Structures are given as C-alpha cells and as structure tokens.
C-alpha cells in the first residue's frame, strides 16, 4: 500500500556546487574562483565537513556580472559595485 501524500509539502534542498563544478560550468579557473572568494567578490553558501567550500546557484549570476563589469572596471571597482548592490537589496 502506498503512503498517503495528499497535502504534503516536500522540502527540496538547494543545489550546492563545489569549486570544480564552477570551473566546469564557467570560464574561470579554480585559482580565480578561490581568489574571488578571498576578495569577497563571491561567497560560499556552506562548507563541507572536510572544509570544502560550497556555492549556491546565485554564484552563477554574480560571476556573470563580474564578467560583464571586467570589460570596463578593475576588480576593486567591481567589489565596490557588487557590495553596494548587496546593501541596496537588504535595505
């Protein structure tokens, strides 16, 4: 007999990505992803028990913005822009 599933909501965990997956899906190297994390351009969402960084899906949008901004801005300027946007959203 099947368990009853009426009116149940399932909590689907968000997909988290390791650095290797970011490298696979973006034009950035492992070192660049690491550097951008250290610089505060992107942020990890969680850490594994083994100490590996995990990134949520929002990192892809942020990396796309970085690509676009790098055409005319320095990394320091990009960090200022992205940090300001983050503050504007939380206000």
What is this structure, in a nutshell?
The protein has helices spanning 19-25, 30-39, 58-69, 75-90, and strands at 46-47, 53-54.
General description of the model:
By secondary structure, the protein is mainly alpha-helical. The protein has a single domain, classed as Multidrug-efflux Transporter Regulator, Chain: A, Domain 2 (Orthogonal Bundle). Helices cover 49% and strands 4% of the residues. It has four helices and two strands; from the N terminus they run H-H-E-E-H-H. The chain has helices spanning 19-25, 30-39, 58-69, 75-90, and strands at residues 46-47, 53-54. The chain has a two-stranded antiparallel ribbon. A hairpin with a 5-residue loop joins strand 1 (46-47) and strand 2 (53-54). The chain starts with 18 loop residues before the first helix and ends with a helix. 10% of the residues are buried.
List the helices and strands and how they pair.
Blueprint (H helix, E strand, L loop, with lengths): L18 H7 L4 H10 L6 E2 L5 E2 L3 H12 L5 H16 L1
Antiparallel strand pairs: 1-2
